Amino acid sequence: MTTHERLLALEAFGIKLGLENMRTLVAALGHPERAYPTIHVAGTNGKGSVCAMTERALRASGYRTGLYTSPHLDRLEERVAVDGDPVAPALFEACAAHVLRVVDEAMADGRLDVHPTFFEVTTAIAFEVFHRARVDVAVIEVGLGGRFDATNVIGPVACAITSIAFDHERHLGTTLAAIAAEKAGIAKHGTPLVIGDLAPEARSTIAVAAEAAGAPLIDAAAVLAHATVERGVATVTCRGGYPPVRLALELGERAQDARGRARTRRCRARRPGDRRAGQIDLLEPTELDQIGLDRVQLGEQEQVRPLGEPALGPPDQLRHRPGAASGSLRPARRRAQDE
Which of 113, 124, 155, 173 has the fewest CB atoms below 10 angstroms from its CB? Predict the structure, then answer.
């Protein structure tokens, strides 16, 4: 049985909510998820597009990025992207073989009582890929819910909940409040939690959970000044110095995603284990690279470019918070030049 065949065979284990297995597995791997800052995104709808836009904005700013999403359409490697491209098959194969070997060892010596599920193993593989690829930051999409999702072993620098609606009621509950409580389980002490435009019942539940966790709550909907949709293209204007955001996407609902993404990426990133080192603003308001946009603001100069073309200038044109401690998070290309 090949590595891929063995991975796909794990789908027979189905869904198993809980973090005990995942905590044991990442510990056995040496905690690869702690090697880089992460951004954690949950929500019923919109979390995939928020993850994609956040990753693109970070990459345009010169950071070497990781992106973990699910499900895949054709190949397993599609779930794990490095710098905007699916992970190379050879690297995925090496990391998958390593993770499966560690699983076998942990099952044999009793550290694991129950075999990890497909999603738990693929999540661990993603963490290992990002560690070996030396990413500067990884954007991680929640698989199901949040509180007991396999991805919820990370210590993110920012979290987001894009929307709350009825989904997976068998696992998450039959009311908006219950579903919101499960998704709010990604809240962490001292980590900003960005929320989208939520129903009052869901918002109040998440606000209570955020306060209990000690997570600063940022309401992305509160910064919206104006939004229009014309022929399927949404233009969003936000308060706080952001230029208009024109989304070259066919669904106007992506306007809400854009607000959440804009607030999420303003949160400061820190190196794991250091509450002060590596403080940066992921992007300044005028340095937005809007995924799929045809207008980009860089400093005081507006650039107009065809859709899909590389955005922004060299990383040395981007402004980062001055005075960061040594060892701070730096764009990969700038780091390479320094080294």
Answer: 113
